[in-house]
Amino acid sequence: MNNKGTLVLDIDGTLLSSEKKLTKRTKEALIEAQKQGWLLILASGRPVNGLMRFARELKMDAFGGALVAFNGSKVVDMRSGEVLFEQPMSVSEGKAVLEHLKNFDVIVLIDHDEYMLTNDVYRTIEQNGRDFAVIEYESRSNNYLLCEKRDLATFVDFPLNKILTAATPAYLQAHWKEMAAPFQDRLNSMFTADFYFEFTAKGIDKAQALRKTMEKLGCRPEDMIAFGDAQNDRSMLEMAGVGIAMGNATDELKQVADVITCSNDEDGIAVYLEEHVL
User: Fold this and answer.
1) DSSP 123-190
2) Rounded CA gap, 197 and 99, in Å?
């Protein structure tokens, strides 16, 4: 059980710089916080595979802590590997979403065991005027092998923690309501970046996952400091004793945050910890 409290950290846009790196200053501040008795929790839309590398870099395998993956549909104890909480979509829900998404010009990505599955591994999207190999990026950054299936809806016979779609920001803004409409009362859906829109089980978000596992982790909401930058971080910032938006966060998140720190490229986490925690 931790002594001082819990630091809950989103990954992309928060813990990592724009170059998707954990900077030396932020890494050192978080390791020092653990030495002083703070527990770390990484909370992200990424799968467990995609969180493990950063957790080890932060020495969480020695200090303990937890990984909140898939925006909260799965929580894993970092030290023991025990699954503390999991709530995926049912097989029928996953199939229904995958079938519906055939009506839209989006890349669809799901994971199963060591594989990331899609129906065309060569597809890209346009980002900032350039082609972005988003499928390669997702598979490499989350330590998956790529697997191509012609019809994901037919192939899937297992529960899904998350269904991720990717497209140009303009396309998603124009179509996300139609994509989500059939499932608005049955599933959660949200943007996790301007080019990502995803589906999880009903009621799933980062705060819900934390509530389900707080007692096991030895933490309380009032002792939490949570850092985030995007829509999917709102619930955990609102439940934490101190909710902190990064300087690069969305305006929506900044409006509900208790504190706004520097951006992820300016070591915003370390800046706050050095001034108020360490």
Assistant:
1) --EEETTEEE-HHHHHHHHTT-EEEE-S-HHHH--S-BS-EEEE--HHHHHHHHHHHHGGGTTTEEEE
2) 16
Dmax (CA) for the chain in angstroms is: 53
Q: Which two three-digit tokens encode residue 73?
A: 């549909």
Contact 210, 237 (CB under 8 A): no
Q: What is the pLDDT of residues 92-110, one digit of tens each?
A: 999 999 999 999 999 999 9
* Torsion over CA: 165, 166, 169, 174 (sign): negative
Share of residues in the chain with pLDDT > 90 (%): 86
Give 108's Cβ-side CA count (13 Å radius).
Answer: 24
Predicted structure pTM score: 0.88
Which residue is listed with tokens 């050192």? Answer: 28
Closest CA to 162 of 207, 121, 116, 120: 116
Contact between residue 182 and residue 95 where contact means Cβ atoms under 8 Å apart = no
Cα 104–chain centre separation:
24
Q: Is the dihedral of CA 200, 138, 116, 175 positive or negative?
A: positive
